[in-house]
Write a structure and sequence with these properties.
The structure holds 2 protein chains of 2 kinds. By secondary structure, chain A is mainly β. Chain A contains no helices and 11 strands. Chain A is globular. Chain B is an all-beta fold. In chain B, the strands form 2 sheets. In chain B, strands 2, 4, 5, 9, 10 and 11 form a 6-stranded mixed sheet that branches. Chain B has a 5-stranded antiparallel sheet with strand order 1-3-8-7-6, with no helix packed on it. Classes of the chains: A mainly beta, B mainly beta. Chains A and B meet through strand 5, strand 9 and strand 10 of A and strand 4, strand 5 and strand 9 of B.
């Protein structure tokens, strides 16, 4: 079974530039998550999709971050314009069910973003 | 206070030592996950458990629901076990139901 794919793996940009990350979840997984993990901390949920609908984006800084999952499969996360504090690893995860009693999220390799 | 707390934050061990990482949580959960993160950033799920104990190779995970506590044990540790180990709880309450609540991770270094 293929895992969650993410690209790029690494990205270095200057502040005020734009950047986009791509995620391809495991086939058949309806739920997709984007997390931000700042060095030394646990991941923080940015946005959660169920198919192509947003179910939780309460911690997404909407003035600069946007995400979409148009066909309910692949997803992109965009930052425009980037700030120094956006330097982090951006993780994508997918799971089969939402709000199930026992479900497992499968994580991608992450994209390490450095904003200079 | 974080809803999921891990200890220790950093752990250095000699190859072959028995290692224990602890996790306590203060919220209602439906499952507890142990995750492994290598320096490249990607996360691998090691265990998902809701009761008792699970074993996979040299790794053992236990959970005590009454005490809201879980442990991850590594027997005969090896330098390739060096990674960050993250405890995460699947919330079972309110609007956060189904979401993962993460601990800050334990950075393990195993010296040869």
């Amino acid at each position: 079974e293929a895992g969650v794919a993410q690209s790029p793996r690494y990205k270095i940009i200057e502040k005020r530039q734009s950047v986009a990350f791509w995620c391809n979840p495991i086939s058949g997984h309806a739920t997709l998550y984007w997390y931000q993990q700042i060095l030394g901390q646990g991941p923080k949920l940015l946005i959660q999709f169920q198919n192509n609908g947003v179910v939780d984006d309460s911690q997404l800084p909407k003035d600069r971050f946007s995400a979409e999952r148009l066909k309910g499969v692949d997803s992109t996360l965009k930052i425009q314009p980037a700030k120094l504090e956006d330097s982090a690893v951006y993780l994508c995860a997918s799971s089969m069910t939402y709000r199930g009693s026992h479900y497992e999220q499968y994580f991608g390799p992450g994209t390490r973003l450095t904003v200079t | 206070k974080n809803e999921v707390e891990q200890s220790p934050q950093n752990l250095t061990a000699q190859e072959g030592e028995f290692i224990t990482i602890n996790c306590s949580y203060s919220v209602g959960i439906s499952a507890l996950h142990w995750l492994q993160q290598h320096p490249g950033g990607g996360i691998v799920s090691l265990f998902m458990l809701s009761s008792g104990k699970k074993k996979h190779g040299r790794l053992i995970a236990t959970i005590n629901i009454q005490e809201k506590h879980s442990s991850l044990h590594i027997t005969a540790s090896h330098p390739r076990d060096s990674a960050v180990y993250i405890c995460a709880a699947t919330s079972n309450y309110g609007g956060s139901q189904g979401n993962l609540i993460f601990g800050k991770g334990t950075k393990l270094s195993v010296k040869p």
